[in-house]
């Protein structure tokens, strides 16, 4: 005896679903996803590469007023080419950046060589790596780069390194973010506005001074002319004549040296004398032609 059951589909019975369709499977991967940058790699590049050229930081290195790091050669090249990006327009010359004193890191053979840990520089006080995992600051005007940890824990050592007290140093954070970065940008904008205002004030004062000096000079010149009884140009003519006399006296021009005498040095023909034929003008005078 053989029994058979008729099973009706309707869900949950192991029948086929839409996921088994090849078109549905391909649509899952149809939309392209944006490439994501590894945040660790991005952080390391920001701390170990030039902000302008993207090349590895190689001394001499410099920092601007908002804590960006550069190779000095790259900054000079961009300044010569006048190709500084608009976002870095506060860099107008080498006076806008400060040369850094970076402490080289000692690499051991047993160290890990992961890109996120690799760094050529470190803090000269605490020895922490200059790779973005720790916060660093720049001490102005000496240019030393130390970690915030050293600044908080051993300020006496930092003062000995910089040659000044911490209260007398201007501290710039390296690669700041968020509110700290906005404060630095606002400080730069205020300084540039103040500089532009001082230039305008200087121009106005110079124009006002010129407006006062020129009328006074004209009045004084007229008064001097009236007192002397001669026009103002008379003094200039007298000075020119005196200069000419001094030159003639120094050169000791002999008596009888006239223009005609000097002209005879460069020409053998005399005025009124018959012109001599030359090779190029031969027989022209015979035909009544005169080249002069």
TrEMBL record:
Pfam families: Rtf2. GO terms for biological process: DNA replication termination. CDD domains: RING-like_Rtf2. One of its GO terms (cellular component) is nucleus. This is Uncharacterized protein. The lineage of its organism: Eukaryota, Viridiplantae, Chlorophyta, core chlorophytes, Chlorophyceae.
